[in-house]
Amino acid sequence: MQSSSSPAHTAKPHPWLAALNNYRDWRLLYIFLLGCSSGFPFVLIGSNLSGWLTDSGIARAQVGLLYSVFAVYAINFLWAPLLDRVRLLGVCRWLGLRRGWIFTLQAIMLGATLLLAGLNPDKDLLLLSLLALLIATCSATHDIAIDAYRIDIIGKDANKVPAASAVSIVGWWTGYSLPGYLAFANADAIGWDGVYLWMAAILALLMVFTLVVREPISDRRALQQAAELRYQGMLDAGNSPWAKAVVWLTVTVVEPFAEFFRRNGVRLALSILLFVFLFKIGEAFLGRMSIVFYREVGYSNEQIAHYSKLVGWGLTILFTLVGSTINIRYGIVRGLFIGGVAMAASNLMFAWIALAGPKESLFLAAIVVDNFCAAFSTVAFVSLLTWLTGRAFSGAQYALLASLGSLGRTTLASGSGFLVDALNGNWALFFVLTAVMVIPGLILLVVIGKKLRD
């Protein structure tokens, strides 16, 4: 018989309520604000630029080719180690390592955006492309710092990671969709040059967000110093300036990638990298040509603004939070597989639009299905990459994984316009092919998931 002094039995909360409790964390607000900053540059050189060039009469093959500037996202891991180790003079001392890099790169993008506003695509296409490349490079670099900020401030708690990933994605889509909605809703009234002046004002607001958030506290520097001592012994380096420089360079450039392979094993590490490369190619092919498709099939800029941007933003937020809760409840790998299958199937909705024509009800249905599937798979994808990242070199290792995903999504998908031309403008067949592209990644996920469980 239980004593009256014994503590009463406390019932465990329902699993779904326990999953939702992971969102009661003030750090998620900071992750959301920086997520907005991460998504916004994609408006500048993505949908806005595509709409501007299409309205200016630029050929769709050239529009698709201009997306090759996103290739810098695929190679940003080459300089990512610097963001884990190099502190910008003055700025990083004032704001900290992560925020210092983010703020500086936002300032450069602000200047480039103001220059873009004064260009004419018909006459200044080369300069426009160079400015787009500059913005893409700064954006890809400040994404390294933003992703590392999220990993540093939230840790690797199995339940917190999906919640942090979801909030980051919600922030990304907020920074992408709301400004995108404003752009397309007002492009006909104020012109695309006026739109880019608005975009510059939004970028200035995002810089204020960077000043508001707190710098994360982590054991990164202690772990890096331990790695330096280990390499100093391995290289038999003394205390001379040259020896210290060699050790510093080795730890900065080699150790982030060596530690990833050492921790996972070579075979599993290579399988992970190949999966990350292949998983979202089909989605990227669809995304690169979506604005061109909407315009060619007969939808107006206002319809694109309302359904693709505004409605799509709300749906993405809802479905991202739902998807992250499911991932907390049932596991990241299982959620990622379900999301991948659904993502491939959702591409067929756009094939239906290509056959049926510009019906608003069908457009809305396609946006609902596509945003649900994309949000569900993306939160699981980001959670998996975060979980696979080490703490000492969070910026470099996450960038390695994310850049490989970008390599598949940008370099291959930049030829999406040529593929549509090769199909003689058969949009329905194009979207069927994008659905088939998901299958190799799903097969690899089955293999990786088994190894990770083992």
From TrEMBL:
Q: Which UniProt keywords apply?
A: Membrane, Transmembrane, Transmembrane helix, Transport
Q: Where are the transmembrane segments?
A: 28-46, 58-79, 100-119, 125-149, 161-183, 195-213, 268-290, 310-328, 335-355, 361-386, 398-420, 426-448
Q: Which GO terms describe its cellular component?
A: membrane
- Where's it found, cell-wise? Membrane
Q: Which GO terms describe its molecular function?
A: transmembrane transporter activity
Query: How does the record say this protein sits in the membrane?
Result: Multi-pass membrane protein
Q: What is its main location?
A: membrane
Q: InterPro entries per the record? A: AmpG_permease/AT-1, MFS, MFS_trans_sf
Protein name per UniProt: MFS transporter
- Kindly list the organism's lineage: Bacteria, Pseudomonadati, Pseudomonadota, Gammaproteobacteria, Cellvibrionales
